């Protein structure tokens, strides 16, 4: 990246006295001017919705007409926290996270390690696993819905070919979860795979050579060298995956509509329903804020843990 | 040594098998789109039964406003790319080279922004956009993707790689900060520009929930939202639906094939930072 810059002739350091009062002041003005456009958009459209959500959650705003409506204090929050449907939806998002995270992280690690042991065809694997990631969710849903179709779909046919009866992918809760998870696996797996392959490429090859000379088997090399060296990457992939899974909406909404009987509805769809089907904007905003706090708490916990571990190793290294 | 070789061979076989499985949904969609609905229901598993034709494509093109959807997606993604590159590179430049009042505040805000789960905020976002009368416009979709803290960091990291003597020399020669940014730094940062452009393009093109809320006219929808109206398990026009989804994924797969190295690199670096 920096090679582009370094091919240019190196200039001698500028003498300090030429950089006087005027340039420094112009630098200040330029700095403000350069960052203002981004800052305005950022404050209006990223911080704005957050503040808006906080304000709305204390009013009984509706989504059908303008205006805030009346002040209701914390009663929205009380209702959200007491609503079993909200907690059901929360549980569905958590359940999805609990199932998909180990699968997507574990398989990505495994496949990336397998790919690292093969010299040829890296581009081919990358293409195969990452291509689905750039496809829109609704296209993925269309294709998978067709593959799940009873009687004529590819997947029920495969089930009957090996003598099993396919679950009811769209009509039952457990079948629905299977359908959503398979589709998610196919769709998003490539992202973690790419993160892991990039990290594996950074492992210096002489570590393996040394291990091979010492007589370490491939399995030992993987278990004792690759996996431990990938620990920081695993921690990162893990948190990215947890946050992404907690935000699940597209797959469940498109494939199942949160059904059957809202038994798979995730939180974002709950918020969507309260805001855009029952038009309860203030209430939906309160649900948004509860959910928001949970997500921020998860990522803050991860940052905290990582810092704790970093200072722990630093202390150990110092001792 | 022989054992290691055997192990690697086994890895290759295993991985290739899975890679082929990963291609199946694409292949199955393309095959289905070329067949006729009658022969699909009669002999679902024999891909050549009933012959192949492009009939489903012309049906899909004429019956769904796919052309409009393409145009909307394209305009929105292009505007998002232009504004993201312009605004985020300027902010990145300021953070990398300039000391100005409020710099630390900007850095803190942008860092905090990385942790904000913006998708969770759709409902208040919707009400805010409504009060600004932005609903139903392209801007409603462009603006949220411009407010991207990640892009600022990508640019800042690239600008920091430029040796400061180069900047100082340009300044001594009397170049304004704008000229330093535009004629010295931006040309050097072409890789960052293309990384940010491609990633912004893909995420803007694929956005689903927000455009679903914001664009309520059929003709003003984007490709993902438009195609989602075809998702239904009672739809038995398999070939037509698959033809539309092939039309939905082809442009992205094309973009991906052309820029795959840069895309993968971009994802890896932004993910790791």
TrEMBL record, chain A:
Membrane spanning residue stretches: 32-59, 89-115, 127-149, 169-189, 229-249, 283-305
Gene3D superfamilies in alphabetical order: MetI-like
Subcellular locations according to the entry: Cell membrane
Membrane topology: Multi-pass membrane protein
Keyword DNA-binding annotated: no
InterPro entries from the UniProt entry: ABC_transporter_permease, MetI-like, MetI-like_sf
Keywords attached to this entry: Cell membrane, Membrane, Transmembrane, Transmembrane helix, Transport
Pfam families: BPD_transp_1
Domain ABC transmembrane type-1: 90-302
GO CC entries: plasma membrane
Matching SUPFAM superfamilies: MetI-like
GO biological processes: transmembrane transport
Region (Disordered): 1-23
Keyword Acetylation appears in the UniProt entry: no
Protein family: Belongs to the binding-protein-dependent transport system permease family.
Protein name: Sugar ABC transporter permease
Organism for this UniProt entry: Streptomyces montanisoli
């Amino acid at each position: 990246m920096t090679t582009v810059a370094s091919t240019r002739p190196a200039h001698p350091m500028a003498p300090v006295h030429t950089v006087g009062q005027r340039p420094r002041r112009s630098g200040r003005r330029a700095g403000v001017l350069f960052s203002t456009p981004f800052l305005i958009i950022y404050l209006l459209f990223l911080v704005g919705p957050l503040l808006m959500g906080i304000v709305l959650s204390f009013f009984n705003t509706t989504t059908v007409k303008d205006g805030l409506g009346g002040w209701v204090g914390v009663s929205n929050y009380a209702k959200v926290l007491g609503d079993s449907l909200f907690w059901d939806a929360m549980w569905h998002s958590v359940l999805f996270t609990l199932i998909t995270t180990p699968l997507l992280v574990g398989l990505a690690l495994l496949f990336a390690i397998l790919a690292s042991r093969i010299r040829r065809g890296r581009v081919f694997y990358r293409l195969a696993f990452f291509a689905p990631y750039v496809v829109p969710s609704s296209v993925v849903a269309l294709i998978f819905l067709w593959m799940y179709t009873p009687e004529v779909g590819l997947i029920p046919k495969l089930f009957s070919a090996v003598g099993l009866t396919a679950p009811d992918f769209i009509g039952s809760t457990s079948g629905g979860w299977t359908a959503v998870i398979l589709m998610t696996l196919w769709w998003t797996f490539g992202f973690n795979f790419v993160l892991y392959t990039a990290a594996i490429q950074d492992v210096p090859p002489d570590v393996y050579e040394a291990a091979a000379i010492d007589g370490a088997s491939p399995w030992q090399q993987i278990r004792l060298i690759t996996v431990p060296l990938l620990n920081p990457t695993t921690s990162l992939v893990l948190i990215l995956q947890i946050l992404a899974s907690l935000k699940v909406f597209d797959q469940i909404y498109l494939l199942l509509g949160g059904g059957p009987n809202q038994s798979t509805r995730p939180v974002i769809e709950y918020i969507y329903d309260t805001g855009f089907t029952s038009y309860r904007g203030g209430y939906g905003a309160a649900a948004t804020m509860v959910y928001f706090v949970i997500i921020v708490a998860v990522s803050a916990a991860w940052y905290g843990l990582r810092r704790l571990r970093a200072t722990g190793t630093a202390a150990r290294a110092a001792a | 040594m022989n054992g290691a070789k055997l192990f690697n061979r086994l890895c290759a076989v295993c991985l290739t098998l899975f890679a082929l499985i990963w291609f199946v949904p694409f292949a199955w969609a393309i095959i289905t789109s070329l067949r006729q609905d009658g022969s699909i229901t009669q002999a679902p598993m024999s891909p050549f039964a009933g012959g192949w034709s492009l009939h489903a494509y012309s049906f899909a093109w004429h019956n769904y406003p796919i052309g409009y959807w393409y145009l909307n997606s394209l305009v929105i993604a292009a505007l998002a790319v232009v504004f993201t590159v312009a605004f985020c590179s300027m902010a990145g430049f300021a953070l990398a080279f300039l000391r100005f009042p409020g710099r630390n505040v900007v850095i803190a805000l942008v860092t905090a922004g990385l942790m904000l789960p913006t998708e969770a905020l759709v409902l208040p976002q919707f009400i805010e956009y409504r009060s600004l009368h932005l609903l139903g416009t392209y801007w409603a979709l462009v603006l949220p993707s411009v407010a991207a803290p990640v892009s600022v960091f990508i640019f800042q990291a690239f600008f920091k790689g430029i040796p400061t003597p180069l900047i100082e020399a340009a300044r001594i020669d009397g170049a304004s900060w704008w000229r330093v940014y535009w004629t010295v730094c931006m040309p050097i940062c072409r890789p960052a520009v293309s990384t940010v452009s491609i990633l912004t393009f893909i995420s803007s093109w694929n956005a689903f929930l927000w455009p679903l809320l914001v664009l309520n006219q059929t003709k003003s929808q984007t490709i993902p939202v438009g195609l989602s109206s075809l998702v239904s398990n009672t739809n038995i026009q398999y070939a037509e639906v698959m033809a539309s989804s092939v039309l939905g994924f082809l442009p992205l797969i094309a973009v991906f094939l052309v820029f795959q190295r840069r895309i993968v690199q971009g994802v890896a670096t932004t993910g790791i930072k």
